[in-house]
Amino acid sequence: MRAGGRTRRPALAGLCLVEFCSWGVLYYTLPVLGVTITEATGWPSLAVPAVYTLGLLLAAALAPLAGRCVDQFGPRRVMAFGSLVGAAGMILSTTGPSLLVFTLSWCVVGVAQAATLYPPAFSAAHQWFGAGGWPLTVITLAGGISSTALAPVIAGLGDELGWRQAVLVLATGYGVLSTVAAVVLLTPHWRRPERRGREHREYVDTIRRSGAFRASRAALAIAALGLYAVTLTLIPLLTERGVPYREAAVIFGLVGAGQVLGRLAFHPLSRFGDPRSRLLVQVAASAVVITVLGVVHGPLLAFALAAVLAGAVRGAHTLAAATAVSDRWGSEAYATILGRFHAPIAAAMALGPAAGAAVAHLTGSYATAALVFATLTLLAVALIRKA
User: N or C: which end of the chain has fewer CB within 10 A?
Assistant: First the structure.
């Protein structure tokens, strides 16, 4: 950590707490309670997944605005605002039987996700603790373990209280914990960009229009689409290979364990090579693990190792996207540039599960779909020549 790191440790704890709560509650509540909500309301089976995807796409679209706000006002205000808005949106979603109100409410949650998930936290860590380093890894580990810790809690609340009361409890707890963490702990001085007004816009636009920016962003977005399309449809892929559902679910859980390993390995490995070579390795590794998932036929140990490997590459992808900006363009207007860089990557992550299911439907199998995404990701390697 930089000088004064001792006084900034509470800030790192605050960022971890906000990410843990935001990923655990804002991101995972609908996937965990989706079936319960559908059964209780009688809505079409695709309604809740569609609402969830819509909220994620809105969060992706608002990533550039969130980045500008972080540069202008600092992460403390932005993340506290996002925490309050997220809680309000969740509470609103429980107020009536209307699918329209439910949809609009989770769009409000999408606004909150743009203000609270990784990019604002990465921007804060970049300025307070320096580019790269272990703080980014620690933050992503906090976000990563949120599903393991909170998914059983969310499911238990849904079983005991029903989905509406469960969401009310989760929203209230989230609003208090995440907002307090942001307000009380994210207190280090925030340095606004040196360039202001027109000079700032021209500086950002110059970077945004550069070949390196566009190529790097496109390559990572394509890799994200493939990684999330295949890993999040891993259970049907395995069952069509003859793996029983229970074992397939266990293997799917290993993707999360792999993410932790990938994030722990990222920092020491990121010291090697230059920005282009590191990007090349990340995208090429994505293509390789997607291919492995598409061609492996067993035994169970092989499926398990493939899942861990895919999870490790997916976990490293999160950090690769964050450090790609600082590696190339430094710290000036980092939040604004990261917001623009991250938007299509976040959109690809949101569309991944639907894209995976759609391509599997068109091709006749999830394994064939995996090979389609592997080919696309391999083609993305060619973009890195411009990066």
Answer: N
